[in-house]
Fold this protein.
Amino acid sequence: SLARAWRLVLLIGTTLATFSIGFNVLTVHAGDRVFARLPDALPIVGGPLTWNALVYGVSSALAIATLLVAAATLSAAVRQADLIRLLPSRVATLGVAGAVALTLVPQTIAAARDIYDAQRARGHRFRSPRDAISLLAPLLGAGLERALVLAEALETRGFGSSARQVARPRRWPALAGAAGVTIAAVALIGFGRVLPGVALLIAAMALAAASAPARSQRTRFRPLVWDIPSVVLALVAGLAIVLLGLALIDGMLTYNPFPRLTAPPFDPLIGGAILLLLTPTIWSGQ
């Protein structure tokens, strides 16, 4: 199932994040708090081992683990079909593509586990890398079959079609511009220019929306019901996003243990915004 697949993704992600801590300690020889020293004759790892590098590795690992937990929680708690139905008609196709991409990895992992169990039930044992062919070949076939079934289902439901036959404008210039602006935005955010990077990301989303096909008629078999918990959770999540966005613009979410190791500052506003994300636990029993 997808739940088991996401558990495996979390396990792999946390393992790699933990490995990155040791890699960071052994390769980054900077900082003012030295706790050990390896011989300088050793390549790459030789030199001082600092608490600064350890703290930086732990913070990076926690960031990776947080992203994985957030993605797994979103995938397990929210129906992707409901998210797509909330999108405007003009960008609904982009939402479907994003939903398909989001479920690609967990579905592939779930299929791999099923094939692995089936092969072991048949008496196959994986003793060397050559034995992986019996796993990879069925996995590739299952992936292609799943892609064909998904394509036929989308084609049957008229995905991307329009009720009226109109002349299609050339959309590739806007898409190319959106891709270039996105790359520039990521580069700016990577170099610490958060506010210009966020502005460019908004511009890239506007270009991508402008390049989307014209809106088409959408039918709904069952309307979405917004009850009191849904409205409260949406408002609280929006408030938390706004508060964290303001903190990110002001640089309050950045922490660098180099060159001097100091305690990270704590802002009650940021702590309150994070606690707002625990609101779903109030209605967890419903």
Q: What stands out?
A: The longest strand covers residues 34-38. Residues 229 and 283 are 7 Å apart (CA to CA). The longest helix spans residues 51-77. The chain is about 65% helix and 5% strand.
